[in-house]
Design goal:
Blueprint lengths: L5 H18 L3 E6 L2 H4 L1 H16 L3 E6 L2 H10 L6 E2 L2 E2 L3 H25 L4 E5 L6 E5 L8 E6 L2 H8 L3 E5 L1 E3 L5 E3 L2 H12 L3 E6 L17 E3 H9 L7 H13 L4 E6 L5 H7 L5 E5 L2
Helix pairs in contact: 4-5, 7-9
Amino acid sequence: MKSFSNAERAEVLTQALPYIKRYVGKTVVVKYGGNAMVNPNLKQQVMDDVVLLWLIGVKVVLVHGGGPEISSMMDRLGKKPEFVDGLRVTDKETVDIVQMVLAGKVNKTLVTLLEKRGGKAIGLCGMDGNLIEAKMKNEKLGFVGDVTKINIAPVCDILEKGYIPVISTLGCDADGNAYNINADTAAAHIAGALGAERFILMTDIAGILKDKDDPSTLIPEITIPEARKLKEEGIISSGMIPKVQCCVTAIEAGVKNVVIMDGRVPHSILMELLTNEGAGTLVKGE
């Protein structure tokens, strides 16, 4: 590892100053998942990034999934995971497991990690304060939900008290039924309700690529109309389609900019927010 002198360290900090000034007091929503959530080293680096941003005055909201942990617990309980079009079939027993794993183990582990790194964090699930209201998406999928409303007050209260909200993506309906909500979609709606300055969507690819098999073809910046054109041309396809749709959802709801970012890159959140180059594809409005 290269050794930096004190002067070089100071120079790096001064170069970050314009970016720090841009985001101080602003809200940034990070959807955390993928390999960055499974790899211990990457997980620690994400926690460091979030705490550093919080310490310099950025209002960071961490929204997380936990698919691998849910599948692991299902295996331990002798229940075989089943997916349709990338969505987990969620019967009543499965939604109980999802609630236990997401709102319990995963959420509280992340809160503890942030606290250990010097942050102050409070865990929420979408059922707390009716944060995420939902309805059944499709009877064949069971208790998989579509977001119908975001009641953002609990998140705002936590931010105003100086804490980092850590949100697991469960929702509920008026009858108290719990629903498993796609984390990308839930995070987009939450970012929109907060009017976030930036919504960061962490993935396991470099961003939007002209050639899906060639990371060097990364598109660093794109507008929504351009994204729609690339979808028509088949360049944006398969799993990238719902991620781009989440970007559209967030921007239409009031988010300034959205980044589809490679969470496998160490400290990619800081690279995106505090450097000129960024760390993925910036999706802009019209």
